[in-house]
Amino acid sequence: MQPRDLSAHTPYVPGRGTEEVARELGMDPEDLTKLSSNENPHGPSPKAIEAIEDAAPTVSVYPKTAHTDLTEALADKWDLESEQVWVSPGADGSIDYLTRAMLEPDDEILEPSPGFSYYSMSARYHHGDAAQYEVSKGDDFEQSADLVLDAYDGERMVYLTTPHNPSGSVIPRDELVELAESVDDHTLIVVDEAYGEFADEPSAIDLLSEYDNIAVMRTFSKAYGLAGLRIGYACVPEAWADAYARVNTPFAASELACRAALAALEDEEHVEKTVESVEWARDYLRTELDVPTWESAGNFVLAEVGDASAVSQAAQREGVIVRDCGSFGLPECIRISCGTEAQTKRAVEVLNQVVSEVPTA
Ligand SMILES: *Cc1c(COP(=O)(O)O)cnc(C)c1O
Fold this sequence. Notes:
The protein is an alpha/beta fold and 361 residues long. The chain has two domains: 18-43 and 269-357, Alpha-Beta Complex (Aspartate Aminotransferase, domain 1), CATH 3.90.1150; 46-266, Type I PLP-dependent aspartate aminotransferase-like (Major domain) (Aspartate Aminotransferase, domain 2, 3-Layer(aba) Sandwich), CATH 3.40.640.10. It is built from twelve helices and eleven strands. It has helices at 18-25, 46-55, 65-78, 90-102, 118-125, 145-151, 173-182, 244-247, 255-266, 268-288, 308-317, 341-357, and strands spanning 33-35, 85-88, 108-113, 129-134, 157-161, 188-192, 214-219, 232-235, 300-304, 320-324, 333-337. The strands form two sheets. Strands 2-8-7-6-5-3-4 form a seven-stranded mixed sheet, sandwiched between helices. Strand 10 (320-324) and strand 11 form a beta hairpin. Helix 4 (90-102) crosses helix 5 (118-125). The protein is globular, with a radius of gyration of 20 Å. The chain binds pyridoxal-5'-phosphate (PLP). The site of pyridoxal-5'-phosphate has 12 residues, from helix 4.
């Protein structure tokens, strides 16, 4: 007995966790500065924690009203019909739902390279395939309609990541509109706004009232600090919004996740504090690191360090965990998440030291 041919399926490579690294180094996880997964260093909103505690005794029941309430709150926030909000386990869940709704076997998606690996993983799970457009370091990861259209060959889905992971670049709104107007009728533009809260650019969600070929994904994992609960959503055009009922995994967004997300949505102060702290840390990283960095609209900064593997391992020995971007196809770059003030300062101190000692590749 064997599973189907999975040789084209590459496993997802997550940023390394504190427990894992602490065990390996024989250190206390508390002594580690983990800036490898773009998490919220201030944790979740206290209101979300309270909501989780309050809901704990009810988890013997399948989630239903919490899911409905969250969907309605999000529809209200973005001025959409509730059918247009597809709540999912993380934005990764939304990627799966959109893929399920769109791809026939052998259909393709077009995705940025470097980019978020789950787009193509999901396409392959659903018997499709992936092609790439290059968001190139040589052009400072600039994103434009032309760049995508040069590579575009009628793919069924085209992913845009704005702010882009791992570079932090954004696609200007007029470029996005031009793209939506240029692609074939059967192509869906998926705008991944996982880091949307940290950017100055407005969300593309309001374009759904004009375009039936744009979907926008958002998540509670980053600015809202709920990564461990797995909760996100896609906003889709009204014309085909009812597909959700046919593609979603029943009860995949858990009761605790929905309740926490609802509470987090109400705590605007926590998000504002998080965004302010990210703005400070981005500036600090860009000003204080002794290596080239790129302007970022996300809660992370990409830095060119020479041998990213050697630098990230050396930093890790000093208790600072950053993301080696080798798995993104950028073996000379690391991505540093914005931490608290203390974490960010510590990371800069260690990285500058390490970079001065590690020979460049
Ligand atoms: C983190 C991230 C996501 C989604 O994360 P979830 O935790 O599944 O919500 C989606 N896209 C990009 C580019 C990300 O970095």
